[in-house]
Amino acid sequence: MHWIRGEALGRGGFAFVSKGIITSQQDGIPHIVAVKSSKSSESDSLVKEKKLLDRFNNCPFIIRCFGDDTTEADGQMLYNIFLEYASGGCLADIMKFSNGRGLPEPAVKNHTRSILMALSHMHALGYVHCDIKPHNILIVEQGDERKNVKNSVKHTAKLADLGSAINMRGGEDNEDDGGFRGTVLYAAPESIINQTYVPQSDVWSLGCTVVSMLTGKLPWKFESPMTATDV
Hints:
By secondary structure, the protein is α+β, with helices and mostly antiparallel strands. The chain has five helices and nine strands; from the N terminus they run E-E-E-H-E-E-H-H-E-E-E-E-H-H.
């Protein structure tokens, strides 16, 4: 696959995301993708995420992965995975523009249904996401190519960032298991207290996310950045 790295879209702890332009046409791969990259020496989480996305690739409510490769930049090797480009951004960004008013209830209903479908798929295959929050829910805009079609753009919420997911049955997917995972303000009590991760934990986190969508605010008040130990 031949591609060009475009503008930066975001950065996390060990990875960064850029817009990617595919220059060699291939069946099933769009012209524009999101490229998630990390140093090859720090890519264990990204390799795991790619493996899980391949496993869930037939779920329309989980962000799609189109492949991976390794490149060199500034003298260091980078591991890259090619993801479905979410032109609508993430829910956290959309909520920022709501000026504290939250999202319309029909939109909240549709987004919640989509993420419930994604979680149902993951849970049925024995996985818990462990980090449901607005930042990890992306909005994919799917348009009708016909001209003059009113309301032709459909906004679909899709679950992303599976790097914290665990396999409830154990196995190699849990090699990095141990300690708290997730985001404190959205985490279930059992996850914070006992580092227990079950499907119900994801549902709790989605509930907190629904509160944020409706209100435009964080689900809990806090005075300073919190860790699981603080809670």
